[in-house]
Design goal:
This protein is α/β, with parallel strands linked by helices and 233 residues long. The chain is 25% helix and 24% strand. The chain folds into 2 domains: 126 residues, Cytochrome c-like domain (Cytochrome Bc1 Complex, Chain D, domain 2, Orthogonal Bundle), CATH 1.10.760; 94 residues, Sandwich (Immunoglobulin-like), CATH 2.60.40. The longest helix has 14 residues. GO terms for molecular function: copper ion binding; electron transfer activity; heme binding.
Length: 233
Amino acid sequence: MLAGALIVAAPLGLSACSVKGGEADQIAGKQAFVKKCGSCHILNRAGTKGLAGPDLDEAFRQSLADGLGTDGVRGLVRQQIAHPSMAGVEGAGIMPADLAKGEEAENISEYVAAVVSKSGKDAGLLGAAVKEAGAGKPIVAKGDTLTIPADPSGALLYDSKAAMAEAGTLKLVMTNESGVPHDLVIDGKGKTPVIPKGSVDFSAKFTPGDYVYYCSVPGHRPAGMEGTLTVKK
């Protein structure tokens, strides 16, 4: 019966009350999850593709089918935030304890419990809670400087998957406000240091053609953190 109830449950985000669970706020929870958890975890409804930690949709799928309810998921997520026990991939380290605390942790737990292992996309207020990362307009160099920002929400993406510049010596700048470590690499041209916040750059000479830029932090490029720089005469 529980599995059937989950299937016919009303879609999220159709009204203001549908994004509230008790005192927790799913909109704030989604925003916090993307920023603080998305770089390590896959969660379909949040649009996150992190590979360092467990795929949450897969981790809960069988338990939900076996009858684990929303309250159970919420409690497990909250407990894991407070007392993490899972190591990440090589170089990623262990999830820090109390990455989120208090109300923020409750909001994250509420959101994950509401959407985990569900297909489709969030709608309404939840759908608009986080802008679609990486969908910005192509970045155009200003003179001999091209600035490619990392997504400020913490998503494993740059602000745009496309950039344009004229041939010649080009200074490539990566800005990062997210707190998630990133770098900027173009094979054969250069690589910035990895930084969680701030600005880094390298310079190189470019001839006309297409060049792939990407983040070399483990798991970030496979999650979609790359784009194409088109250099014209």
